[in-house]
């Protein structure tokens, strides 16, 4: 948990859900290096691990490689990237359908590939 506390201190946006804005997210997507709430984690899980590999920040163990990937991501970096790609603001906080649409875009695929490299 200390690792995630450090990342939240480095990027305060990591303390809110990337998809709905709920405070104190306890789930993360290794695919994007982002953090989200329990409700949004269910939607991410339904996308499949090829689109969003979901882990609990306090119940799962994290390898050093996974921690490095999270360190290179972060909610601010992902949101900034998606906005730079022209992602409509409505998809940033639009609920389950917006999550499904946002993470099935070429922009999301490019970001996943960037974090994986």
Model description:
This protein is mainly alpha-helical and 117 residues long. Helices cover 49% and strands 8% of the residues. It has a 3-stranded antiparallel beta sheet with strand order 2-1-3. Strand 1 and strand 2 form a beta hairpin. Helix 2 crosses helix 5. The model has no long low-confidence stretch (mean pLDDT 93).
- Alpha-beta content class: mainly alpha
Question: Over the alpha carbons, how many angstroms does the gyration radius reach?
Answer: 13 Å
- Alpha carbon gap, first and last residue: 25 Å
User: Strand tally, please?
Assistant: 3
Following the backbone from N to C, one meets helices and strands in this order, namely HEEHEHHHH
* Average of pLDDT: 93
Approximately how much helix is present in the residues? 40-55%
Give the key terms.
117 residues, mainly alpha, 3-stranded antiparallel sheet, 6 helices, 49% helix
Provide a quick synopsis of the model:
The protein is built from six helices and three strands, in the order αββαβαααα. By secondary structure, it is mainly α.
């Amino acid at each position: 948990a200390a690792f995630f506390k450090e990342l939240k201190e480095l990027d305060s946006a990591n303390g809110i859900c990337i998809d709905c804005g709920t405070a104190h997210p306890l789930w993360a997507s290794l695919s994007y290096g982002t953090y989200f709430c329990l409700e949004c984690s269910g939607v991410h899980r339904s996308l499949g691990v090829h689109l969003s590999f979901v882990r609990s920040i306090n119940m799962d163990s994290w390898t050093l490689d996974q921690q490095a990937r999270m360190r290179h991501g972060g909610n601010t970096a992902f949101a900034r990237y998606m906005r730079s790609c022209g992602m409509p603001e409505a998809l940033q906080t639009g609920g389950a359908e917006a999550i499904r649409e946002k993470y099935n875009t070429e922009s999301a695929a490019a970001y996943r590939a960037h974090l994986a490299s």
